[in-house]
Amino acid sequence: MQFIIDFLIQAIKKSPLLNLSAKELKTPIPIATSTEPLGKGVVNLEPFVHQVGGHSSMLCLDEATSVGKPLLVREKAFYENLPEILAPFTAQYRGTIQVTCNEDAGGYLTLTTFPPAGYVAHEGTMPVKHRIKWHHGICIDIECVETSSDEDIFEDDTSMTPVSSSPCVEHSIERRPSHSHNPWILHCHRGHIAKMLGLDEESTHSQQSHSQCHFENLPSFEFLLLENLTWRRKRPCVLDVKMGTRQYGDDAPESKRRSQSLKVENSTSGSLGIRLCGMQVFQVTTNKYLCRNKYYGRSLTDDGLRSSLTQFFHNGERLRTDIFLPLLDRLNRLLAVINQLDSYRLFTSSLLIIYDGLDGQPSEIDVRIIDFAHATQRDMTAESQVYTGPDDGFIFGLKSLVDLIEELSKEE
């Protein structure tokens, strides 16, 4: 017995962990790259194809359960201290995962993780459907692994700033390129993939980055694991609405405050407290999604936003009037909840509205708040500014949205 104890003591003394500083111990331990088959418990991730807005790289752990987004400390703290009355209006928080990105000789990326304890893949979950190809800083592509009925059903109908993530491809408005994913996700993945591959984002534009690179001992990156809000719907229609009249956090520098305030002043955020940040709506007439992005949303007048809301609830044949009553009920219930949240400020958060665009599906509609990277409340951190009362900016936007939906319902 003493021999075993002595052996363990010597092993611990030789451990490299004892030579690390406190700061280094908090840093994710690098996971070596390997071309060997995945070990037991390792799960492949793929791009989340229904992401309509934001700038984070969203990954799908299991199309029937969870999606991941890059971890931000404040957002994690907000989810971990979420008030019970707000929980029905947010995506369920399911912990964190460590994600590693490896590139093969062909430029295809493999994103892997060890799922959290207790994770069980949903019965009937399909294998990975999409993969990312990295063109060494010029652009990225997201390809279908095999031909399916979902191939090329997302149609980019944005007439404003192009969302191509690279100079590789330029499309005319008349052509309206089709994709197997919402085109906005190319914009989101490019910068984050560069970081995961150990590349400086600016260097990805240089000529040196066009040659084949080899990466060893890449670090893992921590992601929040959240409920996948779209998986129960066969053709999820998704609207991302930026809420409130202030679009920066307490820690924002003065330059950020000025630029964001200018965007609010020159958009519907200032006049209505809401701004279209992205959307996809399924058209039964073409069997395709019509997609809009945040640049389109910034250009809208108040009347333009009303027209875009009409478009979001129109399937190409008719306006989905069956959705309005349950939507108004859920929005008004959320309004009652926000009014009870003293000191909470949901700066830069968005509201997701989701329904199934396929005919014959139940007219269920979901309303959830997302993106809490700049949210705050009195118990989060000692150095944050403490507010009193509910979030008036969020409430103003929510009331404007209710008024617009009521107008639409009365017109029909």
How much β-strand is present in the residues?
15-25%
The structural class is: alpha+beta
* Low-confidence region ranges: 7-39, 159-175, 203-215
- Overall 3D geometry? globular
Note the run of SSEs as H and E.
HHEEEHEEEEEEHEEHHEEHHHEEH
Largest sheet: 7 strands, mixed
Keywords:
single chain, 412 residues, alpha+beta, D-amino Acid Aminotransferase, Chain A, domain 1, 2 domains, seven-stranded mixed β-sheet, six-stranded antiparallel beta barrel, 10 helices, 22% strand, globular
Written account of the structure:
It is a single chain. The protein starts with a helix and ends with a helix. A seven-stranded mixed β-sheet has the order 9-8-13-12-11-14-15. Strands 1-2-3-10-4-5 form a six-stranded antiparallel barrel. The chain has two domains: 41-117 and 126-156 and 178-199 and 215-228, no CATH class; 232-411, Inositol polyphosphate kinase (D-amino Acid Aminotransferase, Chain A, domain 1, 2-Layer Sandwich), CATH 3.30.470. It has 412 residues and is α+β, with helices and mostly antiparallel strands. Helix 9 (324-338) packs antiparallel against helix 10 (392-411). Mean pLDDT is 80; it is low at 7-39, 159-175 and 203-215. It has helices at residues 2-13, 22-25, 73-80, 184-196, 254-265, 268-272, 294-298, 302-312, 324-338, 392-411, and strands at residues 43-47, 59-62, 66-70, 93-103, 108-113, 130-134, 140-144, 154-156, 178-179, 221-227, 236-243, 274-283, 288-293, 350-356, 365-370. It is globular, with a radius of gyration of 23 Å.
